[in-house]
Design a protein that fits this description.
Elements: E1 9-18, E2 23-26, E3 33-36, H1 44-50, E4 58-63, E5 77-81, E6 96-100, E7 106-114, E8 118-122, E9 132-141
Antiparallel strand pairs: 1-2, 1-3, 1-9, 4-9, 5-8, 6-7, 7-8
């Protein structure tokens, strides 16, 4: 059997859950995830968990928030004066909106509060501050 190693392109199935068991993503009824170990496209802790696995092997790993999408940072929660926004912009709480940053990049933020005078947005990654549990099934090296 060929064990997974750095530089290999691999296929895996996974299910990712929050600490309370809520499933937030899975490839089980879809195409498996394919990536190259070490390319930095996947969480480093997830990549490291694959190294040394044999085809057909399964494991469960816990990835703390700090090694996943980082802590939830209060400085990424911003209150914006409604007067600085276009008059036809009417966001709703819970809505994700996109805007162009000063450097031209597109950012996606969550609207957390709306009032007549301001809106509050959260620019943290949706999984920031969350510990993740991955059930991984290694399918093999491609």
């Amino acid at each position: 059997m060929v064990q997974a190693k750095e530089g290999d392109t691999v296929k895996v199935h996974y299910t990712v859950k929050l600490g309370d068991g809520t499933i937030i993503g899975s490839t089980i009824d879809q195409e498996p995830l394919q990536f190259t170990i070490g390319d930095g496209q996947i969480l480093p802790s997830f990549e490291q968990a694959i190294i040394g696995m044999n085809p057909g092997e399964s494991k469960t790993i816990d990835i703390p928030a700090e090694q996943a999408f980082g802590p939830h940072l209060e400085e990424m929660v911003i209150v914006i004066d409604r007067a600085k926004l276009p008059p036809d912009f009417n966001p709703r709480v819970g809505e994700r909106v996109q805007f162009r940053q000063w450097d031209g990049q597109i950012a996606s933020v969550l609207v957390t509060e709306v009032s007549d005078l301001s809106i509050t947005i959260d620019a943290n990654h949706p999984l920031a501050g969350k510990d993740l549990i991955f059930d991984i099934q290694f399918l093999g090296v491609v």
